[in-house]
Design goal:
12 helices; 333 residues; 2 domains; alpha/beta; 18% strand; Spore Coat Polysaccharide Biosynthesis Protein SpsA, Chain A; globular
Length: 333
């Protein structure tokens, strides 16, 4: 097995060093390490080079999607691992993912540092599930690890925090959508995998730890603007006309509830700007996109909503999802 590991960089030298240590310890090591540098100034690319990486300088902060795409196009492996620079991997992480033989796979990613604080382990990410309304849940994020997240399952969308892909998948599906910049580009990729019936696997026995050192923050105005825009553009890129008409109400419910959450966090104006940008670009994006057929999309989103509802029920409903299912109904009809 030949693995190329791609690590987008934007500073974070100390965090990168911890990741590189865990890459060196892999039972199925990467044959190639590519560090794609988005204009770091703290010595992170120099460290990567000293540790054996091929450093690809972007020259500026081009964003996650652009950096990952550059790494994919320059990689030589039959398998491609995409890793955030603030992740640490269990020594068998690559081996456990590769054993599935799936088109792509991801593991149980935990929040870093809970044990040091004497807290039970918390989920950072497992897989992504998207509803009819165009909003998604990073399944389990922030919840205490437990039985609900201990079962392997087929998935359509993996967080690109620490995931392994067959290189052939990118020839079939394409690369990340760079216009999405840094939010929901992985969900968009997952919907393209679903449209082509190329599933992945969630592997709970493969464990990683994520520090979550995003430069902006969850409710930073720029984050909210991009997410609000990209949620609408997911519908533009994937929903056929029949589904847009049928799911107008769930879309309004999901987007309005998300706007209410943004408002509560002081980012209401950023949400409005993102929605206006999404509406303004909706038709243009749609004309350039390959849409799902209605019935396959209905099946995929019905499966996603069942997963969201079941796992929310098993681990205590968030207020957002409780209201969504109450107002929008329980299935993709």
């Amino acid at each position: 097995m030949n693995i190329s590991a791609i690590v987008p960089l934007w500073n974070g030298r100390e965090l990168l060093e911890r990741l590189l240590d865990t890459l060196d310890a892999q039972t199925q090591p990467a044959a190639e390490l590519l560090a794609v540098d988005n204009g770091s100034t703290d010595g992170a690319p120099e460290l990567a080079r000293r540790r054996g990486a091929r450093v690809i300088p972007m020259g500026y902060n081009a964003g996650f999607a652009c950096a990952v795409n550059r790494g994919i196009t320059e990689s030589r492996g039959e398998w491609i691992a995409v890793l955030n620079s603030d992740v640490e991997l269990a020594s068998d992480y690559f081996e456990a993912l590769a054993e599935t033989g799936a088109w792509f796979a991801t593991g149980r990613i935990l929040k870093h540092g809970a044990a040091a604080r004497g807290e039970p382990p918390k989920i950072d990410a497992t897989f992504d599930a998207v509803c009819r309304g165009g909003t998604s849940w990073r399944v389990g994020s922030g919840r205490t690890d437990g039985p609900a997240f201990a079962s392997a399952r087929t998935i359509w969308s993996a967080p690109w925090t620490a995931a392994l892909f067959r290189a052939e998948l990118f020839q079939r599906v394409g690369l990340l959508e760079e216009s999405f910049e840094s939010y929901l580009e992985d969900v968009d990729f997952g919907l393209r995998c679903a449209r082509l019936s190329l599933p992945g696997q969630y592997v709970p026995g493969a464990v990683a730890w994520h520090r979550g050192s995003a430069s902006l923050g969850r409710w930073h105005p720029e984050t909210v603007r991009r997410i609000a825009r990209n949620q609408l553009l997911l519908a533009a890129r994937h929903y056929p006309n029949a589904c847009l008409a049928r799911w107008t109400w769930p879309i309004l419910v999901a987007q309005s509830l998300w706007g209410g959450v943004a408002l509560r966090h002081g980012a209401g104006w950023a949400w409005i700007r993102g929605v206006l940008e999404g509406v303004r670009n909706f038709s243009t994006v749609r004309r350039k996109s390959t849409l799902f057929a209605s019935e396959p999309l209905r099946r995929v989103l019905a499966e996603n909503e069942r997963s969201i509802r079941q796992l929310q029920s098993d681990t205590k409903f968030d207020f957002y999802w409780r209201l969504y299912f109450l107002l929008a109904g329980g299935g993709a009809k």
